[in-house]
Amino acid sequence: MSDKKATLTYDGKTIELDSLTGTENETGLDITKLRAETGLITLDPAYGNTGSCTSDITFIDGGKGILRYRGYAIEELCEKSDFLETAFLVLYGHLPNSEEKETFKTGVNDAAGMPSDIIGHLNAFPKDAPPMATLSSLISVLAAHNTDDLGVAYEGESFTKPLYTIMAQVLELAAGQYRVNIGKTPNTYNPELSYAANFMHLMFSEPGQPYEVLPAVEKAMDLFLILHADHEQNCSTSTVRIVGSSQSNLFSSVSAGIGALWGPLHGGANCEVIKMLNSIYNDGIAPSDFVAKAKDKSTGVKLMGFGHRVYKNFDPRAKVLKVQVDNVLEALNIDDPLMGIAKELEEMARSDSYFVDRNLYPNVDFYSGILLKALNIPIDMFTVLFAIGRIPGWIANYRELHTQGQRIGRPRQIYTGSALRDYVDLENR
Ligand code: SDX
């Protein structure tokens, strides 16, 4: 708490509200006693002005375009770290020493190996089922196969066992479903490979012909996952927290997060960006004409991959991805016209008062789709990759929620429906 207080006067009654100032001088008013002392609640649909918790995990400064995991700048982690090390940092709050790093990697590796009858689930889905639907289901199915790991835990083996199971088997489930859908058998997790390289192997290796993961591809996938590892109390992370707050298990909380991330306004935007760029390219639409449509509310068209609830400046992840995409396209000798269109759209939007006045800049999804396309990831799996990257952040928030001993989440409402009225028999309606 800070010593500064707010005074609230309503209907002749005045109360004082404590305030809390965080590490980076963000201040929140503590209204935990508001209803008990005044009968009043606050109203903030979509929670644009409401803090649901204190957190030590991630810090975003939307005005300055800053993103830090546990105090480390995302740019430095992208340059010097790797995804599993970043996952450990996000989960436990410090960079692992050599022993911790090895233990974490071994824990994930040893947890690989989908339950044998999972293949029945993979075969049971329609071949054209949306991958986010099957992934959300399959993570819940893991709860059925790990019934000893359904308790609430945030330390020791009770926590690490489901953590490692989800982190290892999410790769096998996502890639296995893809391969079953194209009539191939799932590949086996290779503990000799990095986490990022393993996913590419699980997706694209063929019997007797292991997929050769080029260093540029491995680095690009690893960096993509680092950039998606966590992002404060976004829609899907808040979903994981609220489900976890009921003391539901880690599998069901992560599965719920996948459902929330699927939405096109959230993680689903990376697919929508590519569909938008493809339509501009294939239909020969002038980028300037598309930008004009995105400004015209009556069209219902948005410049997907642009705008953010928190960033009112460049999303630092978009900056890193834009450079990485250029590197990967060059390393793989790919000339993707969509990149040129994306850059043209960005240039136009950044000099257009509609976007400038609304602080609309490229977000993490604007360039990430072009990167994943260059890595031959199917478009309908782009958000699956976002989910795989975000799992350490979701689980870190689940863990933090329980270390804080937070009560079950249960927002209030202002009722605006009918007042009391008597039942009317059918014949009289
Ligand atoms: C992610 O929260 C997170 O941290 C999320 C995320 C994470 O890592 O977890 O960063 C990942 O979800 C990134 C966002 C991906 N979504 C998209 O790219 C979809 C396109 N963007 C928009 O739908 C929108 O910008 C949101 C959803 C991202 C933010 O929505 P807000 O904060 O509710 O903002 P808003 O809709 O109120 O927009 C404010 C104004 C409106 O115009 P006015 O009413 O002021 O005239 O900006 C306009 C909006 O119409 N606007 C856009 C626009 N985004 C906002 N106009 C055209 N194109 C856009 N993309």
Overall 3D form: globular
Which strand order spans the largest sheet, edge to edge or round the barrel? 1-2-3
CATH homology-level superfamily of the largest domain: Citrate Synthase, domain 1
User: Average pLDDT across residues?
Assistant: 96
Q: In percent, how helical is the residue content?
A: 40-55%
Hetero groups: s-citryldethia Coenzyme A
Strand residue percentage: 5-15%
> Which CATH class of the largest domain?
Mainly Alpha
Please write the string of helix (H) and strand (E) elements. EEEHEEEHHHHHHHHHHHHHHHHH
How many strands, what sense, and barrel or not for the largest sheet?
A: 3 strands, antiparallel
Describe the fold and architecture:
It is a single chain. The chain has helices at residues 34-38, 74-80, 83-92, 98-110, 118-124, 131-145, 156-181, 195-204, 215-227, 235-244, 250-261, 269-282, 287-295, 316-331, 337-350, 353-357, 364-374, 382-403; strands at residues 2-10, 13-21, 27-29, 58-61, 66-69, 72-73. The protein folds into two domains: 5-66, Single Sheet (Rubrerythrin, domain 2); 76-415, Citrate Synthase, domain 1 (Orthogonal Bundle). With 429 residues, the chain is mostly helical. S-citryldethia Coenzyme A binds next to helix 17.
